[in-house]
From TrEMBL:
Coiled coil: none annotated. Belongs to the Nudix hydrolase family. PROSITE patterns: NUDIX, NUDIX_BOX. This is NUDIX hydrolase. One of its GO terms (molecular function) is pyrophosphatase activity.
Length: 205
């Protein structure tokens, strides 16, 4: 198994930092591995706390309309892509904040809609890692029903977001033609093919 000898913080930024790890791989060769993290210090990295699975962020999979036949998506400009990508509404969890509370807050901020979360088994909502080849970030998922009117009143100036209430026909088009974030794509596939989009949440072993 590989070993980490030393952690060197490379940047000091508000929301994301780069860490250079001095490592030894399984055959004893020394090298460097670079990790992007929400952690403010070396001690806050998840590699320093194996038991720490506190979510850095939360994603919201919500249905809209009287028939619950539309899914709430956002089409957001992202600098790393130099363009727009379809995503689930999402955001960072504040220190000490419950991620279900964060989901309600984030949906309101990004879309103007009110979220009514539903209770699901922990295996579907607990924090999972987003891209472990480059970051230790993990995010929880909150499911529920959205209501109200779309509004940009609560949106931050740094956010460039179009709210999309997509039916199955539009979801199919987006998956076929547009750039889509991975978690969003998986949830859209459930929405597209499952008669009851939340049916999978009621299946546990």
């Amino acid at each position: 198994m590989g070993k980490i000898n030393k952690v060197n913080k490379q940047t000091t930024n508000p929301y994301l930092n780069l860490y250079d790890l001095d490592v030894v791989n399984k055959v004893g060769r020394e090298g460097h591995y670079y990790v992007a993290s929400r952690a403010k210090t070396e001690d806050d990295l998840k590699l320093s706390h194996a038991e720490n699975n506190d979510p850095d962020g939360v994603a919201i999979y919500s249905l809209y309309g009287e028939k619950k036949d539309r899914v709430v998506l956002i089409r957001q400009f992202r600098y790393p892509l130099g363009g727009y990508v379809y995503e689930l509404p999402a955001g960072l969890v504040d220190p000490g904040e419950n991620y279900h509370t964060a989901a309600i807050r984030e949906l309101k901020e990004e879309t103007g809609l009110k979220l009514e979360p539903i209770v699901v088994d922990d295996i579907y909502q607990k924090p999972y890692y987003t891209s472990v080849g480059m970051t230790d970030e993990c995010c929880g998922t909150v499911y529920g029903y959205a209501s109200g009117e779309i509004s940009k009143k609560y949106m931050e100036d740094s956010e460039e977001i179009e709210v999309v209430l997509a039916d199955r026909k539009e979801v199919a088009r987006i998956l076929k033609e547009e750039r889509v974030a991975l978690l969003c794509a998986y949830m859209m596939m459930h929405f597209l093919h499952d008669e009851e989009p939340f049916a999978f949440l009621h299946t546990t072993k």
